[in-house]
Amino acid sequence: MGTTGKPGRGRAGDAYRRVIGLTGPLLPCVSFLGRLPTATIQFGSVLLVARTHGSLTTAGLTGGALALGEVVCGPLVGRLADRHGQRAVVLAFSLVNAVAVAVLVAGALAGLPGPALVLLGAVAGATVPLVGPLARARLVALARRSGASEATVGAALSFESTLDELSFVLGPALVGLAAVLAHPAYAMAVAAALVATCGTAFALHPTSHATTPAGEAPVGPATLAPAPSRPGAGEAPAGPATPAPDPSRSAPPAYPPAPPAHPRVEVVPPDVPPPGPAGPAAPGSPRRRPPRPPMPSGVPGLFAALALQGAVFGACQAGITALTGRLGQADQAGLVYAAMGVMSAVAGLAMAAVPERVGARTRWRLATGAALALSLPLLGTRSLPGLYAVVTVLGVAYAPHLITVFGLLERAVAPSRLAETMGVATSALVGGQAPAVAVTGRLAEIHGPTAAFAVATAAAGLTFVLALTVRPAAYAGAPGNALPARVPDTPPAARDRHGG
Fold it and tell me: Is 327 helix (H, G, I), strand (E, B) or coil?
C-alpha cells in the first residue's frame, strides 16, 4: 500500500502539469472567474429580493425562474457554440448576461413588482454563457489535438470539475459574506462585472479556436485519410490488441487535423462517415455541413444520473439548513456545505492518480456506491460536530462521480455535439438541484431535517442503480465517432485475453 502512494501522487502532478501546458496559466484563471458568477447569481438573487421586498415567496420564485432559464437555455448555448464556435457565442452571452444581472439588481433596488423580478430572473438565467461546460469542451479539444494520452484527457476533466466545485463553494460563500457585511446587491454587481470581463477574456483567448464549428472542415482527401479497414458499430478492431489506445478510437474527428500520433490513426472531419463505395469527395469539393448525429442511447441515463446528483446536492442543502437552524446555529449552514465542497474538490484532484486499469464504468459504480453508503449516516445525525464530519466525508464521493460521468459523456457523443452535451449535463445538475431544494425544504419544515436527508439517500440509491444498469452506448458505438475520455472499460490485459 505504501509503495503506491508516491507514484500515484507523481502521476497526478505530471498529468496536471501537462494539462496546464495545453492552455497556459491564464486560461484556467479566466475560466474560473468567468464561471464564478453562475454560482453566485442564483443564491444572490434570492437574498437580494428577500432583502429588498421582504418576501421569501417572491425571492424563491425569482431564484427558481433564474434556475429554470439556465436549465432550458443551457443546451441551446452549447449547441450554438458547437455550430458557430465558442468565441462569438460566449462573447455575446457574456455581455448580455452582465446587462441582465445588472438590470435585475437595479429592478430589485427600485422596488419593481414581483412578476417583473421573476421575468428578469428568467432572462438572467437564460443568458448564462456556460463558461464552465465550454471550458471543459475546449480543454478536451486541446488535449485531443495535441495527441495527449487518455490519462491527460482524464486529468483535464478532473481539473475542470475541480474548478466547478470550487466555484460553487466560493460563490454562495461570497454572497453570504456580502449579505452579512453590506448588501447582496454588491455581490450581484461583482458577478455582473466578472461575467462581462472574464467571460469576454475567455471568449477572446486564442484557444477559442480549438473547437471547430461543425461542418467547417472540407470533405476531401486532404482531411480524410483512408485506413486499411474500419470496423462497423460494435465490432472489434482488426489485428491484435496492444496496450496503446485503440487506433480506430484515437482520431480526433471534431478538431482541426493534427499529425497522427500512431501510423494507423485516421483523421476524419467532424462526424463525416468513412467513404463508401463511391470513395471520398473529389478535391475542391464545396464545404458542407454534415447531418447532425443523434445522441447515443446510453446518454439519457448519464443525464439522469447527473439530475439525481443535483437532487442529492439540493436535498443535502435543505437538510443542512434545517438542522443547523434547529440547533440554533443557522449561520453555520454555509460553512458545512462549503466543507463538503472543499472535500469534493480535493477528491476530484486526486482522480488523476487512479490507475488506468480501473475502468470507467467501474469508477462510476464505485463512486455512486460510495455516495449511497456515505449518505446513510446523515439519517442519524443530530449534532453540529457530527454534521460536519458526516457531510465532509460524503463530499469524497461527489467529484469522482461527476468527473466519471463527464468522461463517459465525452466518450459517448459525437465530437460536434460535445459543447451541447456539456450544456445539457450542466442543465441536468441544476434541474435536479433546484426542485430538490424547494421540495425537501418544505419536507424539512414539516417533518424535520431527517426527511430531507432521506431524500438525498434515496436519490443516491437511484444513481447507484443507474450505474449498475446503464451501459453507455460509447462502448459499442462507431469507433470513429466515440472518443474515450478516460480509459477503456476493459483493461488491456483483458482485451488481449479476449482477442481485442
Answer: coil
* CA distance linking residue 489 with residue 407, whole number of Å: 12
Residue 407 vs residue 493, higher pLDDT: 407
How many CA atoms lie within 13 Å of 7's alpha carbon, on the beta-carbon side?
6
Residue 223 has which C-alpha cell? 482531411
pTM for this model (two decimals): 0.71
Closest CA to 165 of 24, 350, 412, 413: 350
Interval 89-107: pLDDT, tens: 999 999 999 999 999 999 9
Give me the phi and psi of 327, to 5 degrees please: -85, 0
Helices (H) and strands (E) in the chain, counts: 17, 0
Report yes or no: 488 and 246 within 8 Å, Cβ to Cβ.
Answer: yes
Cβ atoms of residues 418 and 137 within 8 Å: yes
Q: 114 exposed, middle or buried (CB, 10 Å; 0-12, 13-18, 19+)?
A: middle
| Cα 312 to Cα 317: distance, rounded to the nearest angstrom | 8
CA 420 to CA 54: how far, in whole Å?
A: 38
The answer to whether the Cα torsion of 156, 162, 168, 171 is positive or negative is negative
Task: Retrieve residue 183's grid coordinates.
Answer: 448588501
C-alpha grid cell, residue 109? 433596488
Max CA pair span of the chain: 75
